[in-house]
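Appendix C: a fully annotated inverse folding record. The material below is reproduced so that readers can follow the format used throughout the book. The structure is listed first as tokens, followed by the designed sequence.
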């Protein structure tokens, strides 16, 4: 049977469904503090587990008193730090810790990447997003990004509204590997950008090398087109698309719908990949790569090698963190495809 095409999919989501998607991705369904394995050479990792567990317990304690609180005028923002910020480089387990914090916290609660949150506000409108999230106990934000001033201000305003309503916030960063030697560089940037909330965040550093590349080979080379086609036909639930056609299709969908587009897909095949032609296409590919990684969907490509997906100019520009993360994640997914074969 011929493989399906992602370009044939046009998923639609209601407001309730958009909020309902704010949970840890399948890759992190089973993560907990107990199965996080700290690097013995990086003591900050074990310390981060302790800090995150304590933060989750702090949220749980007031939740047990929610009935009493509701009798005296509803929720009130607790005193003291209501935010936890995990600061560190790629692949040190920050997302594992964030998802574990989410799993250990009573609901209602929401979990999403910084990009997913900006997409949610764009899809629902600011006031409606605040209304729907303000009754939550916890908002977990993975990969808080500081490279877009407009988005940073938007989410900063959202966090201010939510923390004033009593919502706790946990977030992670993505410090560039070559910035790790600069101490609390990313943390200071984050706190400065959310000035009015800075005193409400506790910063926890998580150091270490990218676990996705510990002793592993570089990205598998692209395959020939006939090999790609054979793989797509051999694996049930596969999709196969021409790279340019997929890029055009992504441009027609709101990024909040990319995840739903991948429902039921077991392996993605992209024919004829090449460097993204411009920044808009490149950023859509980053969002698409994130949704693939969330769902642990192996990727097989023909054309140019995955590390060439973004040009040198892009890699050295303002969205450097996004592009390096996307390459790291796509490389891991390409390895998954090779190992499965």
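Designed amino acids, in order:
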């Amino acid at each position: 049977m011929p493989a399906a095409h992602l370009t044939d999919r046009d998923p639609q989501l209601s407001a309730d469904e958009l909020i309902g998607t704010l949970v840890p991705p399948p890759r992190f369904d089973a993560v907990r503090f107990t199965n996080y394995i700290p690097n013995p050479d990086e003591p900050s990792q074990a310390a981060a587990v302790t800090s995150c567990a304590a933060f989750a317990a702090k949220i749980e304690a007031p939740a047990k008193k929610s009935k009493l609180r509701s009798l005296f005028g509803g929720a009130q923002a607790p005193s003291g730090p209501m935010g936890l910020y995990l600061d560190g480089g790629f692949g040190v387990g920050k997302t594992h810790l964030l998802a574990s914090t989410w799993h250990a916290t009573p609901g209602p609660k929401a979990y999403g990447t910084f990009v997913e949150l900006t997409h949610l506000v764009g899809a629902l409108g600011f006031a409606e997003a605040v209304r729907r999230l303000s009754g939550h106990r916890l908002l977990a934000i993975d990969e808080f990004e500081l490279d877009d001033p407009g988005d940073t201000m938007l989410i900063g305003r959202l966090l201010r509204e939510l923390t004033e309503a009593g919502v706790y916030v946990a977030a992670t960063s993505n410090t560039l590997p070559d910035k790790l030697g600069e101490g609390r560089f990313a943390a200071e940037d984050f706190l400065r950008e959310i000035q009015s909330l800075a005193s409400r965040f506790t910063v926890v550093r998580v150091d270490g090398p990218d676990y996705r590349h510990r002793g592993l080979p570089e990205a598998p080379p692209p395959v020939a087109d006939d090999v790609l086609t054979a793989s797509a036909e051999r694996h049930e639930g596969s999709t196969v698309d021409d790279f340019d056609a997929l890029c055009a299709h992504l441009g027609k969908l709101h990024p909040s719908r990319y995840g739903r587009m991948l429902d039921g897909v077991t392996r993605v095949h992209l024919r004829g990949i090449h460097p993204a032609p411009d920044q808009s296409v490149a950023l859509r590919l980053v969002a698409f790569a994130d949704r693939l990684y969330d769902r642990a969907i192996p990727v097989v490509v023909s054309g140019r090698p995955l590390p060439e997906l973004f040009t040198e100019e892009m890699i050295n520009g303002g969205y450097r963190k996004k592009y390096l993360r996307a390459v790291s994640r796509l490389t891991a997914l390409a390895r998954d495809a090779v190992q499965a074969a």
